Amino acid sequence: ATGIKDIMNMIFKTDTGGDLTLDEILKNQQLLNDISGKLDGVNGSLNDLIAQGNLNTELSKEILKIANEQNQVLNDVNNKLDAINTMLRVYLPKITSMLSDVMKQNYALSLQIEYLSKQLQEISDKLDIINVNVLINSTLTEITPAYQRIKYVNEKFEELTFATETSSKVKKDGSPADILDELTELTELAKSVTKNDVDGFEFYLNTFHDVMVGNNLFGRSALKTASELITKEN
Questions:
Q1: Mean pLDDT of 48-77
Q2: Please, what's the b/e burial string for 14-26 (b: 16 or more CB within 10 A of its CB; e: otherwise)?
Q3: Quick check: is 85 in a domain?
Q4: Number of structural domains, the chain?
Q5: Range of the domain at 210
Q6: Does the first or last residue of the chain, that is N or C, have fewer Cβ atoms within 10 Å of its Cβ?
Q7: Where is the domain boundary, 51, 82, 98?
Q8: 95 vs 90: CA distance, rounded Å
Q9: How far apart are CA 111 and CA 153, in angstroms?
Q10: Residues 82 and 154 in one domain
């Protein structure tokens, strides 16, 4: 049978030193003090365990709360991703089709622009020809009177010079009056040609020169205009 001594030894790990009755144990102050100390130690250990258990419970609650919040965030993210995927499944084919239509329209538009560019180039070429023709006509209008005057003076001078030389050879032995008349006419022609007048030969000669070198209203040489017209026609 298990006695009180064995029970004490089992619970408190205390050697009672023999078969003692309960009354004897209660009268043994040293043994009671030892048992009391062991009880205080057990009580302290229990308090620590309880405190640690409470701490672990609070920490577990906090961790569980954080985990729940993270799960809620993940659920929200997943819901938004699902909504985006749904929207993409609905609208992506439409967007792709729309972009395809836009590309086709852009291609057709580029062909039209290319055609219009060619048309504008042809119009530009024709306008260039018209512009050159206008310059030619303006140049001719400006140069014709001068050319006609120069041509007339040259022909008249050659005619009088030839007549004077002929008369001098034929009429060496005759009256010098005829020769004098022809020389006088030639002299008068020379005077009219060299007279400083806005309607004189010198004016028209200067006008002709200015038109040829481009020193005129258009600032453009008649020779350059004629050259461009010939190039355009070829």
A1: 73
A2: bebeeebeeeebe
A3: yes
A4: 2
A5: 127-233
A6: N
A7: 98
A8: 9
A9: 62
A10: no
The reply to whether 134 and 41 lie within a common domain is no
78, 98, 118: which is the final residue of a domain? 98
> Does the residue 108 lie in any domain?
no
Q: Which amino acid is at 1?
A: A
Distance, in Å, from the CA atom of 198 to the CA atom of 123, rounded to the nearest integer, reads 42
Token pair belonging to 64: 């569980």
Q: Do 148 and 224 sit in the same domain of this protein?
A: yes
Q: Are 188 and 164 in contact (CB under 8 A)?
A: no
Residue at 212 is within a domain: yes
List the Cα angle 8/9/14 in 5-degree steps: 95
Place of tokens 């006695």: 3
Token pair belonging to 46: 């229990």
DSSP labels for 9-25?
HHHH-----S---HHHH
What lies within 8 Å, CB to CB, of 95 at 6+ separation is none
Q: Taking a C-beta distance cutoff of 8 angstroms, is the pair 164, 183 a contact?
A: yes
Amino acid code (one letter) for 133? N
* More confident: 62 or 40: 62
pLDDT grade for 209, boundaries at 50, 70 and 90: confident
Gap between the terminal Cα atoms of the chain:
142
Using a 10 angstrom Cβ sphere, with 0-12 exposed, 13-18 middle and 19 or more buried, the burial of residue 157 is: middle
Identify the pLDDT of residue 43: 60
Q: CA-CA distance, 224 to 234, in Å (whole number)?
A: 15
